[in-house]
Fold this protein.
Amino acid sequence: MTQPLNISVLPTKWATALIGFVGMICIANLSTAQQSELSPYSRYGFGLVNQLHSPVFAGLGGMETTLFNGYQFQPNNPASATFLSQTTFQASGIGNRLSLEQGDAPRAMTSFGSPGPIGMVVKRQSGDNALILNLSPYSTTGYVITRNSEVSEIGSVQERYEGNGGLNNFNIGWAHVSKGTRFVMAGPNDSILVQNGALHMGIQTQYLFGQLSRSSTLDILDPTFLDHQNRFTAQHRSISTTVGLVYDQLISARYSALKDFEQSYSMRLGGTYTPETNLHSTIQNLDETTQTLGGISIGLDTAFYSERVNFRGRMPQSYAVGSSLHFDRSDGLRWALGFEYKSTRWDQVSNRFAPEMQSQGVEWAQSKAYRFGFQFNRGNPEQLHPTWGKATYRLGVSQQFQPYLIDGSQVMIQAFSGGLTIPLVGSRSLSRIHFGTELGERMTAEGALEERYLRIHLGVSLMPFFKNNWLIPRLYD
């Protein structure tokens, strides 16, 4: 007996949404224990902000306004969900290689892994609406710094600075697309109805949560002297809304007299906006004298302790705008290139944060990002290779300024990126495997600490097999 071609809409729809939601909650509990950064520049404020992307958009320099596709959505822009062809689950992991160098000091290197964004969009095939569930890293903190010195009349002294934690973003959203049509010429005496433009709209609620912890220890090796330790812990939570819009406009299209597609040009304009919102924090700060016994630091006396329960602050407004040009040809050749700018006004809410969140000599600043991306597919994919011929290739360049001024110089990140997407062989579906690579550097003023990092992103987008398409009614009773 053959299996039915499609399954019923109601049970699967609710089961899919429920499984996705429960999965997000479980991952949210696990993700707070994951270390996703090891950088001294992550010791300020909320850590390094918006550093980790899904593989497709990591390969495009982190673009989040217009360069979308049918097999992976951008967690920072809910409007991207309606570009998907059907229900999609995506997840990724990241391998990191970090090199630190300052002046004539020996270079330090380390390797570590971290999780990437994970999410699900529930969407009927060729439908106009989409439900979004997603969990992404928002900021990351991780460092271990040790400095040894000799002090007169005291002897050998070791300073140790450690930090870990980060903030995560959980999203629930909805997206919709409205399409318009027009007639274009097909040969000298005929015309054909095509899609002229489409407005993709999305809105999602963002629940920002997580914990950051930092400690600094002064360890005097002579046991006749007492040591000192400062410990800072902050738990943050905030609820906000992000709105995304993308307008896709056909510029020109050419069809043959037999009404066969030949080529087309189109342009996209897009943007996102997140308004200023409340931040609720629980902050603890402890200064104490300690003594190291058997390699274990024992607290002896509290010099200072403060606790702020449900401290009210503000998270800044943020917006991004971008544009891209797209070309398609009948043999499968297609390319797209785009540019975008993003701004987050941390400087406008700096006086609303607890003073102990920043170190001495560090100030809040406006965060900015400039991104350029290019992607293309080669023509005649089946003739080239059944797998690699269908690959999508990407290149990207980005420059980002973190929201911190250190002694008057802002933390700057510059990166080159690339990547590709190939079909998931044997799945008999539209599922894909994604690769992304980032090569970048972080720095402030000339002569300061310089970091070079290499990231390798590996991810997957899973879509249902065509005989098991979800959210489609039965063809029979």
